[in-house]
Amino acid sequence: DNYCYRFPNGSLTHKEAVAVCANMGGQLADVRDTRDQQMLADRIRDTTDVSHWTVIKSPSPNVVHNDGSTVYALSPWMSADAYGPFDVCVLLDSTDSYKGT
Predict the structure, then answer these.
(1) Theoretical Cys-Cys bridge with 17: which of 12, 43, 46, 79, CB 3.0 to 4.6 Å?
(2) pLDDT value, residue 79
(3) CB-based contact 57:90 (threshold 8 Å)
(4) Whole-model pTM above 0.85?
């Protein structure tokens, strides 16, 4: 493929991993199918052998308050940075054959 992958040894939060990739001019790996997942699993197993974050984006989700009423995306008490597209945190879990969890 025409991609470059970096597998850091340290443990990062999803937010930290996104920032590290962005600072290097990249992004988290986008796993689109089983072939992508297996290729990443093989490379991770051969290098760091620890869990790694991937990128998945979601359009604005239907978010509700505890009582079921809608949380509106433009609520003044919410940060503008919190809206769309949303990162969905998916971990290629080393304890589960690097399958997304």
Answers:
(1) 12
(2) 64
(3) no
(4) no
Listed residue (49, 37, 52) closest to 91, CA to CA: 52
Percentage of the chain surpassing pLDDT 70? Answer: 79
Instruction: Please state, rounded to an integer, the average pLDDT across all residues of the chain.
Output: 81
Between CA 37 and CA 33 the distance in angstroms is 6
Phi and psi for 4 in degrees, rounded to 5?
-115, 130
Note the helical H segments in 47-96: none
Burial of residue 74 (CB within 10 Å: 0-12, 13-18, 19+) is exposed
Contact 51/77 with Cβ under 8 angstroms? no
